[in-house]
Amino acid sequence: MASTLYICYFGLREPLVQTQVIPYLREVMKDGFAISLLTFEPDLSSKWTEPELSAAREDLAAKGIKWFVLPYHKRPSAAATIYDVFAGARRVRRLIGEEGVDILHARVHVPAMMAALARKLSRRKPKLLFDIRGFFPEEYTDAGIWPENGLLFRMVKRIEKWIMKEADGFVVLTEKAREILFPGSKKSGFDDTGRPVEVIPCCVDLPRRFPDSVTSAGIEMRSRLGVGDRQVITHLGALGGLYLTDEIADFLAAARSVDPSTFALLITQSDPERIVPLLRDRGFTEHDFFVGRVAPEDVGKYLCAANAGLSIVKATYATASRSPTKIPEYLACGLPVIANKGVGDVDSLIAEEGIGVLIDDFSRESYLKAIEDLSRLGEVGAKCREVASARFDLETVGGVRYRRLYKRLLQTDADAGKAA
């Protein structure tokens, strides 16, 4: 039985791990892989008790996943990350031997550094799969975390270049990212050195996370929210940074100017104070919005109460690599998408499938035009759900492509053995 070690620089309890890591690992397992998972837990000693750790290990073991854990260090930022890289590399090197690892699956840059270092120091040489996810250094400069072309940016770009050389296969989230990094690979599925490349957008576990009947779920949640037959526009996810909070509030205000009954439904883990004052400044009262967290298992129910979903993200070189998870989640609940241009493959998705509208620029005129275009779409709920299933289903899209990539990685070893 082949074995993979998935390295993730997030904590097990993070929603991203619960929705975008563990479900994918369950899919990989269908080809008989032994699965190990290494996570980095913030405040490990204070937020996890020994019984909780044991219970989490048992729960994952029941799913077929062996869980390993290291503490995540936050401050000082760069030094803490460097420390974690070397601690992670040391643990990965040990696990390569103990677990007989055949594939090191590294989610984004920091785990890829750990994996590449560990393999250099190990007798066993597993394949390294670099699951790129996004253009990490550029995202940090675009979000204002690092200065443009500063020391940290240049250092990470050099490390990135080394990881790209060391990796045996790649995952990117968008066709745009593939065109940038691996031109010519779309037809063959391999880069110019013969390494496999897969485009795997952020997928969703449709039957597990979303109601069978979006209509009944929507009626129930509308009643709970007390919105009746008001127009409800939702935003799902973080606020601030690349997620343009002022522009979100401006769009909602424009929608309210067209339909004064408009209700803003913002499902977010971010501090509500990032947007609540902005909404109030634009005339929204406490009866006109909901801002806050909801349980992961309830996200789909809340979305079903909406009429449309917003995806407003700063469009940059880095966001060409982005596949916003919120978009398939909207579509799964039958919601048309309202998105700004220039982010990942969203423009082509909307143009090809007719399941939403694009905002030309961040002006009131463009917002009003998008609202008018949305009204002309008509009833597209069924089409949205069809597109979610055809293009973003975890089992038939994400799982199939990951298993194909794993087979291609291991096939190179088999070919080498035959040649020898």
Structural class: alpha/beta
Major sheet summary line: 7 strands, parallel
Mean pLDDT across the residues is 94
Overall 3D geometry? globular
- For the biggest β-sheet, the strand order reads 3-2-1-4-5-6-7
Number of strand elements: 13
Q: If helices are DSSP runs of H or I spanning 4 or more residues, what is the number of helices?
A: 20
Q: What are the low-pLDDT stretches, counting only 5+ consecutive residues below 50?
A: 416-420
Question: Approximately what portion of the residues adopt beta-strand conformation?
Answer: 15-25%
Helix content: 40-55%
What value does the Rg take, in angstroms? 22 Å
Please provide a written account of the structure.
This protein is of the alpha/beta class and 420 residues long. The protein has 20 helices and 13 strands. It has helices spanning 15-20, 22-28, 44-47, 50-62, 77-99, 109-120, 136-142, 151-166, 175-181, 185-188, 206-209, 214-225, 245-258, 276-281, 299-303, 326-332, 346-353, 364-377, 381-392, 394-419; strands at residues 3-8, 34-42, 65-72, 103-107, 127-131, 169-172, 197-199, 232-236, 263-267, 289-292, 308-311, 337-340, 356-359. It has a seven-stranded parallel beta sheet, sandwiched between helices. It has a six-stranded parallel beta sheet with strand order 10-9-8-11-12-13, sandwiched between helices. Helix 2 (22-28) packs across helix 20 and helix 16 packs across helix 19.
